[in-house]
Design brief:
- The structure holds 3 protein chains of 3 kinds.
- Chain A is α/β, with parallel strands linked by helices.
- Chain A folds into 3 domains: 37 residues, no CATH class; 213 residues, P-loop containing nucleotide triphosphate hydrolases (Rossmann fold), CATH 3.40.50.300; 35 residues, no CATH class.
- In chain A, 44% of the residues lie in helices and 13% in strands.
- Chain A contains 11 helices and 8 strands.
- In chain A, strand 7, helix 7 and strand 8 form a beta-alpha-beta unit.
- The longest helix of chain A is centred in the C-terminal third of the chain and has 31 residues.
- Chain B starts with a helix and ends in a 9-residue tail after the last helix.
- Chain C has a single domain, classed as Cobalamin-binding domain (Rossmann fold, 3-Layer(aba) Sandwich), CATH 3.40.50.280.
- By secondary structure, chain C is an alpha/beta fold.
- Chain C has 5 helices and 5 strands; from the N terminus they run E-H-E-H-E-H-E-H-E-H.
- The chains are: A alpha/beta, B alpha/beta, C alpha/beta.
- Chains in contact: A-B, A-C, B-C.
Amino acid sequence: MKAVEAMLNGSRRDCARLITQVENEHPKAKEILREIYPHTGTAHVVGITGPPGGGKSTLTTRLAEAFRAQNKRVGIVAVDPTSPFTGGAILGDRIRMKSLYEDEGVFIRSMGTRGHLGGLSKTTAGVVQILDAYGCDVIFVETVGVGQSEVEIVQNADTVLMVLVPGLGDDIQAIKAGVMEIGDLFIINKFDLDGAVRAKTEIEMMLATDQRRKAIPLVYPVTASMAGSNRAEGIEAVVEGIIKHRADSVENGQWDARRKAQVRNEILYFLRGELEAILKKELDRWELEKVYQRNQSPRERGEEILRTWIEEGRHGKKD
Amino acid sequence: MENWKKHLQTERKRWEETIVKKVTDRFPERKETFVTGSREPVERLYTPGEGDDQYLDEIGFPGQYPFTRGVQPTMYRGRLWTMRMYAGFATAEESNARYKYLVSQGSSGLSVAFDLPTQIGYDSDHALAAGEVGKVGVAIDSLADMERLFDGIPLDRVSTSMTINAPAAVLLAMYIAVAEKQGVSAGQLRGTIQNDILKEYIARGTYIYPTQPSMRLITDIFAYCSKEVPKWNTISISGYHIREAGATAAQEVGFTLADGIAYVEAALQAGLDIDEFGPRLSFFFNAHNDLLEEVSKYRAARRMWAKIMKERFKAENPKSMMMKFHTQTGGSTLTAQQPDNNIVRVTIQTLAAIFGGTQSLHTNSRDEALALPTEASVRIALRTQQIVAHESGVTQTVDPLAGSYYIESKTNQIEEEAFALIEKIDELGGAPRAIDLGFIQQAISDAAYAAQKDIESGEQIVVGVNQYQIEEEAPKDLLRVDPAVEIRQVKALHAMKADRDQTSVEEALKELKAVCQGTGNTMPAILKAVRTYATLGEISDVMRDVFGEYEQHVRL
Amino acid sequence: MRPIRVLVAKPGLDGHDRGAKVIARALRDAGMEVIYTGLRQTPEQIVRAAVDEDVDVVAMSILSGAHNHLLPQVAKGLKAEGVKDVLILGGGVIPDTDIPNLKTQGIEAVFTPGTTMETVVSYIRSNLKRDLRE
């Protein structure tokens, strides 16, 4: 495909247009993703997540600046929620990224979730692949900070940054339930705020008592929004942490394991989608009156359908 | 007393159920609910209400705590308000001519509008200044421009207000330096600098530095002026732009006073004495079309500030508790359609400000929804104030609307709502933190969106815009700033730079940098730099380098 | 059909963003994806964002009087990047007499004070230069 070739040769505009097609699941998207796939796999994908108000965009900007200083090409995919009522969205992450605008080595793309739950959009993985093929060395994926449902980021990133801020005590309690285990690096942003030291201790204790973890992740205090003589602190340490996480996971086999799991997940995700469509059609062929009348349970009927479908092919049987 | 109130309630109910019902059954009211300009519900009728027995505590006498009825005992019977027309465009020479014209027409105070590059600390030759030089105000690059701006205007005899915030210290220093050259000492200078950075973050957008160093610059000015420029109002805490951005009347009061609280706290933390800087704090409010709501707003704000200063900050000097304020009629109420109608709107707004007891007033011109005002338009706007002052009779007695059941009830309601907002902001950790979280911005943008929806649904009629439209020709005679102004200004800047003593400029900037890096007061070093003809851009760059730049917080 | 993507930008130094924010919300509520850039954008920054975000519309709000200088630069910049299918709009305090000149320079519509949100929404819907199915 011409556009893919142009993108691989560095055309920014073609990169942007390919992203659009993939994001919209355009008929050509399949071909695009197939053609670029051999060119992917080199980028380090860093997921950035955490509750709203944590300064994720500002932190992403500072990290991007730091990687640019090392001459790395940076991609940023910033996901914001789509309104479930109108399908519209306001994508405002660029406001904090002004310092990156004029840098040729940074590509920023804003996306709406478009009805997908889990902190990402359905096509985020494909968009990341395009930026990977485009030649980005590091790709930051900033999720919608919804608190509980960001688990999906793990399936899409090599390294996950969990961004927290002091003064959200209750939130820390709330997120520890399902989300604390997904962070590879823990960042306490706005460390200049009151209660920062206590928040750090609390998080460290929480991590230390997590039985599932083999190694306790480090907690990085950061002031991403500071400027001038009070310049942002802690950013360099996070950059080192990100690089070290890659090196460590390559060494202990995590890197490979995670990437393989990602591939399996992607296939599984695809299969699930396709199967669901097939099964929906299948279901339409079946009589469900007994279930409606409460004479048979949905589960029971489901088992019958599945058994028939697997054993006898796709043709439904009407009772 | 209690019996009397009960009796009133019974009678009110009877009236609603008989007399009113009889009429409304046959002739329903025009709308189901009536609302104010801020979309607050309005009742059919107001009667003596709760709190009327607290007259002395809550309303009292003018010139006396809690100042609900005004800060001076005689108000406009003693002296009329200052008619202060905000003006400035193109170069210093052209603005100077406009000031002289305004003074000759009876304007009693100057009010300087700076262009955007000046307000954001860029010289006229900066890349970001391209296209903006001299557009919304006058371009000031150095002391040389400031000298031309006030040429022939005796600074010991006028009071000058300057709408300048992030670089307020630099422009004030330039003003002091010009006065020196005229032989006028700093102690004689009267005027105001806006110097209110928090509302820039919230609504107006001409910020430079992050919050902390900005607050330091502000308290540096407080400290310096209390010794050296004692008659100067060191800050004008502004609700004007908050309202323009879409806030309701109660939000305008609540957010502005929350900003005020933040400045007082910063000053106290810097070791200043509440009763030393308190009297130099001044405020700046908007005047919109809902006359009675606006009058109530000013009265509520005055009472609230008195309470805040006395109860929260334990001020003892009554002058610290007095809220003095400037008013400007609401720019966002002006329409581009049938622009002459704006004269009527401005008249209503002028009445609101005067019934509300303002200390000074700027009236907008009819053509400001189209461009900067022409001289003829500005004259009508000024005449509007003069007609209200001399012909309307509303100045003859103090706080003439007090005691109106509606006004007092509305005053109480705005106070209650605004205090609730302040409480919420306190919970979030104060105004700077609430801004950082986007809380204030979001509340304003919600209100703005709701207001726009009301206009589009026809719920709110705007004459000439969504009703009573006519076919109009494109208006003529608009003021245009010649693009050559930018070229001339840049040329003058380069000529000035070639002519000055470069070594003393560099030394002064170096010294300024050291002061900024430390904790000392920045004002003397800024004044020193200004005297060497270091430019506004050079001085601001030194501070940008040390302090960094603010990043916008938006919530939509 | 995919959603319309709009870049809402504030060129220049002007800080009055009430109009830009109201429009951003109205477009969102009309089902569009709105990329809001915040204040003080240079024409170069606006062009870059429009290209990377691959938007259908660039809508710029300006009240400072610098429109004659800044808006055409964005149109020129997009052209230089080879972008020809983006609808470029302006809004704000812009005198009627300036509008013909802006139009010849590639600003396809200019919305002045008093314009309804509905007008802007329907103008965008009926003047897109890209097929939303493509």
